[in-house]
Structures are given as C-alpha cells and as structure tokens.
Specification:
Elements lengths: L2 H30 L7 E18 H4 L7 E3 L8 E15 L11 E12 L5 E10 L10 E13 L7 E10 L4 E9 L4 E11 L6 E12 L10 E9 L3 H4 L5 E17 L1
Parallel strand pairs: 5-6, 5-9
Antiparallel strand pairs: 1-3, 1-12, 2-4, 3-4, 4-5, 6-7, 7-8, 8-11, 9-10, 10-12
Length: 267
Amino acid sequence: MNRLQSKTFAIARDVRAKSLHLMILACALLIGSSPATAQDYEEWSAEVRTSLSFRVSEAAILPLLPPGWSVRPIADAPGKVNISLTFMDRYLILDTQGEQVRTGASRYMVISTQASNEESGLSGVMIINGISPEGTGAYEVYQTALIARTERSHSGLGEESASSAETWEFAAESGDRVLLNLRYLSAPPVRRQTSIVIRSGLRPDFTRTYHIDQSSDRLGIPGSPDNRIESLSFTAEGPLFSAIFDGTEVLTGVTSTPWYNREIFIP
C-alpha cells in the first residue's frame, strides 16, 4: 500500500469516527430533551384500592376548593357535584433508589373531585381532603389519622369467582371518621395503563404526574341490575364529613382495584 492510499484510508476512518460521534451526540441531545426527563421521579408503589363515587351537596365541597376553582354541577341533579372516596392499602412503597419508604407500607383514604378554574383554563383531578397516618401528605390537605385500618379476605374454589370481604376504617384527630364494610363477588378485572396529573386543593399550582398500571372491577351499586355487591355499609361522621354526607348524598359507583402500580413524578 502506497502513502497516498494509506492517507486516504486514514481520512476515511477519521470521517466515519466523527460521523459516529455526531450521531451519538444527537441521540443524547434528543434523549435529554424528552418530556420524561423533565420530570423528577419521586416514588413507586404497589397498592390495593376500593373506590366509592358519590353525588353530594355542592355547598359542602366549595369551601374545600382553592379561590377561583369550582366543580361542574350535575345537569340532572341541581346543587349536586361528583366526588370520589378512594381507600388505599399501599403494601409496598419504594423511593428513587428502590429502597422502602419508612416501613414500606401505608393505608389512607382520599377525597377527590374534578375541578376547574375558568380564568386560567386549568382543570383536572383535585385532591381536597382525606385521612392519612402520614399527616397532611404531599398535597397538604389530609387530616392526620388516629385510626387507619383495613381488613380484606377472599375465598373461592377452583376456577370459580372469589367471594371478597373488606373493612376500611379511618378516623382523624378532628373527629371525622369513615367506616366501610363491603362484601361482593369478584370478577376478572379490566387492565388499564394510563397517565394522569393530580392537583392539590390547597396549592393548585402543585401537581404530580402518575404513570399507572392497574386493574379495575366495577361492582355496580346495590339494587342495580347485574351488580355483584352482597352487602355494603358506609358511615361518615364528624365536623367536615357530616356536612358532605348529610343524608342527601347518592352513591353512584363502587369499584374494586385488586392491583394498582404507579410511578410518581413531579410535576
């Protein structure tokens, strides 16, 4: 090989090396600018949940919303709005390093609603209250729990649907208390993967993004066709809860979530 050929090959190798370097740099820039990396990863958890949906007095919910925010009234139920009570049994909670957060488990109840701000145009799920052993929590709206208890059991034979029983009890220092006793016949749940932004009812500019992999078993409501609820007893009392659940509330749905895995990012 003469000197000219050797020099030509050297130049070609240098060009290929520079091209490869530019490609790697471009990929790194694209990855670094992706929306996911703009978020701060905060937590991962595995949970079991049960949710109750209600129509309740709009007047009882408005004081729990930030200034300028409102809940859309229900067209066929004047003065009523929709809220959800979610009972959570978080049996594994991990931090960003994969280590357990405190004991690695927690149980609490959350009250949420769909809220909007006409002036800013913002809307979405808003956490407005709840009871938690962790105090006010990330959204700064939970009441501190004196009692945070759950009992769950399942029984079945072979490939038959299981019979399930649950008790959830939460009580706060304020005197607010909820108690749910539920028995139902399980059915194969529906899996769903989604992302959702959750907003604080105290500081509406504070949000967290959940990336969720969950299963849902809609049980219906007692007395409705094809419902699988064998018995349901719900009690809510105390300074705040008695105003929300004043005897005019209407139960509109019951959902069992046998497994609920989520990654939490800020924002």
